[in-house]
Amino acid sequence: MELVTPGIGLIFWQTVVFLLVLFLLGKFAWKPIMNALQERESSIENALSAAEKAKLEMQALKADNEKLLAEARLERDKILKEATDAANSIVETAKQKANEEGARMIEQARESIENEKRAAITEVKNMAASLSLEIAEQILRKELSDKNAQQALAQEYIREVTLN
Amino acid sequence: MKRLFVLLFSFLTLTAFAEAASEDGKFEPGAMITHHIADDYTWHFADGVVAYLPVILVDNGEFQVFSSSNFYNEAHELVPYNGYALDHGHIVKVDASGEPLADQAGLYDFSITKNVASLFVSVALMLVIFFVIAGRYKNNAKTAPRGIQSFFEPIIIFIRDEIAKANIGPKYERYMPYLLTVFFFIWFNNLLGLMPGGANLTGNIAVTLVLAGITLLITLFSGNKNYWKHIVATPGVPTWLAPIMIPVELIGILTKPFSLMVRLFANITAGHIIILSLFSLIFIFESISVAPLSVAFSIFMMFLELFVALLQAYIFTLLSAMYFGGAVEEHDHADEHH
């Protein structure tokens, strides 16, 4: 029974001391501790969320960069294609021009050759004619020195004329 | 360190047994154990190392303050002093011949007993430790905890998150000072009670009565409309049952702190009794050969008591938080939790 009978003295001291400690610790220990814990937790939370935000921003930036890069790549391809096309067309035109020029020059050459040939032929013809005349004259002179021969020739001519 | 403890322990037990012997020299384990777990006007640290504590009496409105050493003569025998004497661990008014008076009315004992002195020591320890920790938090709020701070921080956070937030809800913050104080008060005093020479403070019914009483008062003062409605008109119970229900609910208000009071008192006192009984075995059998077994069991019990010291502090705090949570609960289905 002794054990379960609370003594007035201890009740008094326990109440006074406990309430005093509760007040002192509450004001000077628990309050700053709880505040500091809260502050630290919120600062950690903020840091984490800031990191998360930065990560998202980085991702957005990366996506942007990729888009820009893709665009640049497309642009480059376009420019390259255009340049190739231009180069091709230039080469094509040049080739065509060269071909045309070549053809023209060949034509000209052929023409001049033809002209030369014609001139040469004419000259040969003329020479042959004059040579023939000279030879004919020589022959005729020699032939017609004989009377019989002149007769025979005249007759042959007449025959030929009749036949025509 | 270990050797020191063993030495202290042997001193302590020797002291106890020296006093527990009855007139014919026979060992009385019951008397020794009762003496050990009860309050005292002197504080025996070891054999021959005794602190005589001040006696403070209020006798019919008159203060009497003197040292408890006045109750003992040179041979350490009890003697009356100034009309008062120690009788079975209590101060009583005596007549000239040293016989207790029939009329003891008007005598109130506010002495600084062993338990009160131990209370002062423990709260001084608490104040020093937690002021030091609070200083650390104030000066470097955002740095990682270190030293003693890093030992207590997880415990404080555990009480906040697992006990207060989980059981009280959004209004937990205003109960934090009480929950933290009561947790560390009980834990510290449980551990100090296990120390050699320590007082059995948390195993004293007056201490647990005050703690449970404060929990009750906080619960009653923070009780909201739902809480009182639940008591005077329990939802879902027919009105004609009210004459039964209201007394039952009112008793329920008191049984909660009563269970808190008894649980802490009984657990701590029982632990002390078991350890002391185990040591008594040596003297009951009057054989040193029992000692190894006694010591082995006592060591096992000591470890168990270290765990119980923490467990009881946790349970007291947890149940207090649950009672506060029940008192401030907002939603209408208050009976869900019963």
UniProtKB/TrEMBL annotation, chain A:
TM regions (residue ranges): 12-30
Subcellular location: Cell membrane; Endomembrane system
SUPFAM superfamilies tied to this protein: F1F0 ATP synthase subunit B, membrane domain (SSF81573)
Pfam families associated with the record: ATP-synt_B
Membrane topology: Single-pass membrane protein
Coiled-coil zones: 34-123
Gene Ontology MF, one: proton-transporting ATPase activity, rotational mechanism
Keyword Membrane in record: yes
GO cellular component terms, semicolon-separated: endomembrane system; plasma membrane; proton-transporting ATP synthase complex
Annotated keywords: ATP synthesis, Cell membrane, CF(0), Coiled coil, Hydrogen ion transport, Ion transport, Membrane, Transmembrane, Transmembrane helix, Transport
Protein family: Belongs to the ATPase B chain family.
Function (record text): F(1)F(0) ATP synthase produces ATP from ADP in the presence of a proton or sodium gradient. F-type ATPases consist of two structural domains, F(1) containing the extramembraneous catalytic core and F(0) containing the membrane proton channel, linked together by a central stalk and a peripheral stalk. During catalysis, ATP synthesis in the catalytic domain of F(1) is coupled via a rotary mechanism of the central stalk subunits to proton translocation.
Subunit structure, interactors included: F-type ATPases have 2 components, F(1) - the catalytic core - and F(0) - the membrane proton channel. F(1) has five subunits: alpha(3), beta(3), gamma(1), delta(1), epsilon(1). F(0) has four main subunits: a(1), b(2) and c(10-14). The alpha and beta chains form an alternating ring which encloses part of the gamma chain. F(1) is attached to F(0) by a central stalk formed by the gamma and epsilon chains, while a peripheral stalk is formed by the delta and b chains. F-type ATPases have 2 components, F(1) - the catalytic core - and F(0) - the membrane proton channel. F(1) has five subunits: alpha(3), beta(3), gamma(1), delta(1), epsilon(1). F(0) has three main subunits: a(1), b(2) and c(10-14). The alpha and beta chains form an alternating ring which encloses part of the gamma chain. F(1) is attached to F(0) by a central stalk formed by the gamma and epsilon chains, while a peripheral stalk is formed by the delta and b chains.
Stored NCBIfam families: ATP_synt_b, PRK14471.1
Protein name (record): ATP synthase subunit b
Gene: atpF
From TrEMBL, chain B:
Signal peptide: 1-18
UniProt KW Zinc keyword: no
Keyword Ribosomal protein applies: no
Taxonomic placement: Bacteria, Pseudomonadati, Bacteroidota, Cytophagia, Cytophagales
Family matches, as HAMAP family: ATP_synth_a_bact (MF_01393)
This protein's name: ATP synthase subunit a
Keyword field: ATP synthesis, Cell membrane, CF(0), Hydrogen ion transport, Ion transport, Membrane, Signal, Transmembrane, Transmembrane helix, Transport
Compartments in which it is found: Cell membrane; Membrane
Transmembrane segments: 116-137, 175-195, 201-221, 264-285, 291-316
Gene designation per UniProt: atpB
Family: Belongs to the ATPase A chain family.
Predominant cellular place of this UniProt entry's protein: membrane
Pfam family, one: ATP-synt_A
Gene source species: Pontibacter chinhatensis
